[in-house]
Design brief:
The chain is an alpha/beta fold. 36% of the residues lie in helices and 25% in strands. It has a domain at 5-94 and 170-254: P-loop containing nucleotide triphosphate hydrolases (Rossmann fold, 3-Layer(aba) Sandwich). The structure holds adenosine-5'-triphosphate. GO terms for molecular function: ATP binding; ATP hydrolysis activity; phosphate transmembrane transporter activity.
């Protein structure tokens, strides 16, 4: 079930370094939220804090609150591994498991998670996930071939299939198209559009046209000043952000005057 995320007064540190300060935002369920902003302003850092990936870096920590459908993500009773299962992540470079077949790549997360599954159940998950990732027709006759034998765009869709196979509540995407050609990018953008009927999606992108095309809401991050932490400058409906933003810095960034 797709979930909403409420972030309040979020500060994110790498050791003593305060990378991002004072983020407040709401990410709506069953919608696409894009994070944009110049390099180094903390988009990926905020994204990783949303499924507790940030804390795998030694010394990294967060302060503030992240609530996922009313449940505190950083509550001491919450198991971070369980969080990463429910809030999936797709990375910049497609990263299928190199020695595994297409079939086994899709099931990798399910196998880590759970009990033994019957073959028919596994087949059903593989087909549903590959269909969900718009890859089924291209690979259905070679499911036992290595995932690495696919094109870059197909590999990224395979990674999306792997992420959705465990039926996460939220899908985080960190520049998922930056290593892809325009045709594969367009396939992933179509897919994002379809997936939002089931999942809450957050995407970091450097491509403003992409943010405008795929997202319902956009958050613009920027550094407070050189050497200062990143902050969320403005978050609004994407249409408004790209036509009539509230903040001057958003306007300047979107119109290409900096960044
Ligand atoms: N593992 C890390 N250890 C220490 N500092 C880090 C680490 N990762 C990121 N940072 C710092 O945190 C700040 C925010 O980085 P982050 O990667 O989140 O920015 P970004 O907006 O996603 O940038 P880009 O668009 O270039 O990917 C930067 O100052 C960066 O140097």
């Amino acid at each position: 079930m797709a979930k909403s995320i409420d972030v309040s007064d979020l500060d994110i540190y790498y050791g003593d370094f305060l990378a991002v300060q004072g983020v407040n935002m709401t990410i709506k369920a069953r919608s696409v939220t894009a994070f944009i902003g110049p390099s180094g302003c903390g988009k990926s850092t905020v994204l990783r804090s949303l499924n507790r990936m940030h804390e795998v870096i030694p010394g990294a920590r967060v302060e503030g609150k992240i609530m996922v459908d009313g449940q505190s993500l950083y509550d001491p009773s919450i198991d971070p591994v369980a969080v990463r299962r429910q809030i999936g992540m797709v990375f910049q470079r497609p990263n299928p498991f190199p020695t595994m077949s297409i079939y086994d790549n899709v099931l990798a997360g399910n196998r880590l998670n759970s009990k033994r599954m019957k073959k028919a159940e596994q087949d059903a998950i593989v087909e549903k996930s590959l269909r969900g990732a718009n890859l089924w027709n291209e690979v259905k006759d070679r499911l036992n071939k290595p995932g690495m034998g696919l094109s870059g765009g197909q590999q990224q869709r395979l990674c999306i299939a792997r992420a959705i196979a465990v039926e996460p509540q939220v899908l985080l995407m960190d520049e998922p198209c930056s290593a892809l050609d325009p045709i594969s990018t367009s396939a992933i953008e179509d897919l994002i559009h379809e997936l939002k009927s089931e999942f809450t999606i957050v995407i970091v992108t450097h491509n403003m046209q992409q943010a405008a095309r795929v997202s319902d809401d956009t958050g613009f991050f920027n550094l407070k000043a050189a050497g200062q932490p990143g902050q969320l400058v403005e978050m609004n409906a994407t249409k408004k952000m790209f036509s009539n933003p509230d903040n001057e810095a958003t306007e300047a960034y979107i119109s290409g005057r900096f960044g």
